[in-house]
Design goal:
- With 412 residues, the chain is of the alpha+beta class.
- It contains 14 helices and twelve strands.
- The strands form five sheets. It has a three-stranded antiparallel β-sheet with strand order 3-2-7.
- Helix 8 packs antiparallel against helix 10.
- It starts with a helix and ends in a 14-residue tail after the last strand.
- About 10% of the residues have low confidence.
């Protein structure tokens, strides 16, 4: 036993010489070299849970807007003639139910939420006995790592499963992500906003601490002469009772002066910090600032213009990534050569008011680039007989109707 204690004491003595007055951080750097980053800013061996999405209203609003908007877009499999393909197994999968637990809306929204929180969203293809895709299962991004095979230089995904580690080829995993540098893993927007979120949290906490430690009194009661403690208590009690029984009305008596204490309930720095957060969150997620409540300088005379800014500047970029990934990994090379491709309909978010929409339809028919049945489909109305033809504007007759020739003119 004595030898055991001697060894423990010697070990402490060795660490004492190692530290030699240095900080823990310096000692760790000296002992473990590059592994010092394990202990800063967080210890990786301590369980960390990211609650930013659930605790920051601005980030939650931004991600809700992005994910709900993308999941609401109609997604279709089209051929080279722009006709919708419905008899394809993958079309059935993505249109209705990518897996037995989710509908198409939930699947796309969850993928977009994961992409905007962790920077990456993964869905692995599940094959049946005939090697046909029967489901797309969303993976936990924290369990997926991108690796490159040494000889072929192809991308594989290392997945930490419940029963061990699996390696899956990149063509078997749908991967949508945020921007990144060298490599294949997207950068988390929440990591980019970490300093902004921490700054806002500290400002709010400081304001709450000041409110908790502030004097709660609302009035200063000045007396004309010095009075004893008993008299002070009597005057205070009369003051309090009269105030409560008369709806907050006070009568200032001779020899008594009542001054209200003026103070701000919230520090204006809180609102300034929130404004900074809204601006930075909008910038990181590439969102128009008005969508996060920033109304300064916004002109609401044209809601269509604001919607166009969001669709073209934000959603348009995001949906292209999904389309390219679906085309590459959910269609065979032969199907792509036949002209099949996936397409989100961004026009679904650009519906104007009734007047503008009617003008759009009117010009579409008169200019012969919209048929009546195409318009009826946009308005969720059934097709009508003869409505699949284009009409020229002279008499609104079918475009294939022969034009009558003037008298005396003969056809050659």
């Amino acid at each position: 036993m004595n030898k055991l204690f001697d060894r423990i004491k010697a070990q402490f003595a060795r660490f004492g010489k190692l530290f030699n007055g240095k900080s823990l951080k310096q000692a760790v750097a000296t002992t473990y070299g590059s592994f010092a980053r394990w202990f800063e800013p967080y210890n990786i061996f301590t369980k960390r849970t990211n609650h930013t999405l659930a605790t920051n209203e601005t980030i939650f609003a931004a991600i809700s807007r992005l994910s709900n908007s993308l999941a609401s877009l109609p997604l279709k499999l089209l051929d080279k003639n722009f006709n919708q393909v419905t008899d394809h197994p993958i079309a059935e999968l993505l249109t209705y139910s990518p897996n037995p637990n989710m509908n198409a809306f939930e699947f796309l929204r969850t993928m977009e939420v994961l992409r905007n929180t962790t920077g990456n969203a993964y869905a692995i293809k599940d094959y049946d006995s005939r090697y046909q895709v029967r489901a797309l299962w969303i993976l936990d991004p924290s369990r997926v790592t991108e690796v490159i095979e040494t000889t072929t230089k192809e991308l594989w995904y290392e997945i930490q499963g419940d029963n061990g580690i699996y390696y899956v080829h990149n063509m078997d995993v749908v991967h949508v992500k945020h921007i990144h540098g060298y490599g294949y893993r997207g950068i988390s927007p929440i990591d980019v906003l970490r300093n902004t979120v921490d700054f806002e949290g500290k400002i709010k906490q400081l304001s709450l601490d000041m409110m908790d430690s502030a004097v709660k009194a609302s009035f200063i009661l000045q007396l004309a002469a010095n009075v004893g403690d008993e008299k002070k208590k009597e005057i205070y009690e009369n003051f309090r009772k009269f105030y409560s029984e008369n709806g907050g009305v006070l009568i200032q008596e001779l020899g008594v002066k009542i001054d209200p204490i003026k103070r701000e309930l919230l520090d204006t720095k809180v609102f300034e910090a929130e404004k900074i957060t809204r601006t930075r969150v909008a910038s990181v997620f590439n969102l128009p600032a008005y969508m996060l409540g920033e109304t300064q300088g916004i002109n609401y005379n044209s809601m269509e213009q604001l919607a166009l800014e969001f669709v073209q500047g934000t959603l348009g970029v995001n949906v292209v990534q999904y389309e390219k990934e679906f085309n590459r990994k959910l269609l065979t090379p032969e199907e792509r050569r036949r002209g099949l491709y996936w397409k989100f309909n961004l026009k679904a978010l650009l519906r104007g008011n009734t007047k503008d929409q009617a003008e759009y339809y009117f010009k579409g028919v008169r200019s012969m680039w919209l048929t009546p049945n195409e318009i009826r489909a946009l308005e969720d109305l059934p097709p009508m007989e003869g409505g699949d033809k284009l009409y020229r504007s002279k008499d609104m007759e079918p475009i294939d109707t022969p034009i009558p020739l003037p008298k005396g003119v003969k056809t050659q």
